[in-house]
Amino acid sequence: MAPVSNNSDVLQVISRIQTGDQNAREDFLNEYKPFIAKTAMNLCKRPLQWEHSDELSIALIAFNTAIDTYNIQKEIPFLPYAKVVINNRLKDLFRKESRLRIECSFDMEDTEGKISSPAEIQSACTEFRNRTIEDERREELEEYETLLEKFGVDFEALVEVSPKHKDSRQTLFKVAGFIAEQEQIMEQLLAKKQLPISELILKTGVNRKTLERGRKFIIATSLVLYYPMQFPYLYSHINQGTD
Fold first, then answer.
1. How many Cβ atoms sit within 10 Å of the Cβ of residue 144?
2. Residue 108 and residue 120: Cα distance in Å, rounded?
3. Beta bridge partner(s), residue 109
4. H or E segment at 29?
């Protein structure tokens, strides 16, 4: 499916997304990945790959932020606005890295007068870069924790309620995946903040005891699977956990 190019059509899609249509959000983000990648690569002046480039992850998050912060009432086309948001987010990353390089260059001598090697400076810059990515992850976790609270799920307690056995964990993952794919069931969960246990028993074949015992884990997982672009780091982690 080709990206929506007409600005009026784009505005209609964004309006649906801003009112809670998560399927439209995911489709829109997937359709505009080439635009996101091109914007990031034009700024970085080098090729980037989705599987290996942190810049693309940051650009994707910035594009998602642009969707949420875009004011439909203003007469500004969305894509130029999104490009500015992406560029600003990446430039902020580059400024932080640049400041670190400058600090490193001024601090090339240690207390004993030994000159730091380029490898040591690069190592320090890499460490700073990793901290920046960790900041993104921390913001995502804070947003996730806030969402879980609405469902009566304590983020810190998730470790305790997570199934220890692989078979049990896989069963709950499948239930969560089923919920995320079934729009009607997901709408019930989002509206009532409760699992439709009886319906899940009929449609998944999983017994009541397992569903009730894994209730918090199922809710927490289904939310990430339903909002993959809102929680990209958690979504990646869950996908690895289901292998």
1. 19
2. 9
3. 115
4. helix 22-31
Question: Rounded to 5, what percent of the chain is helix, strand, coil?
Answer: 75, 0, 25
Residues of the chain with pLDDT under 50: 1-2, 4-5, 100, 103-111, 113, 115, 121
Residue position matching structure tokens 């987010």 = 89
The verdict on pTM exceeding 0.90 is no
Q: What is the pLDDT at residue 111? A: 46
Cα→Cα distances 155→119, 142, 146, 174, Å: 39, 10, 9, 21
Task: Name the token pair of 235.
Answer: 């979504």
The Cα-based distances of 158 to 148, 179, 221 in angstroms read 10, 19, 10
Q: How many CB atoms lie within 10 A of CB 170?
A: 13
Question: Element (H or E) spanning 224, and its range?
Answer: helix 215-226
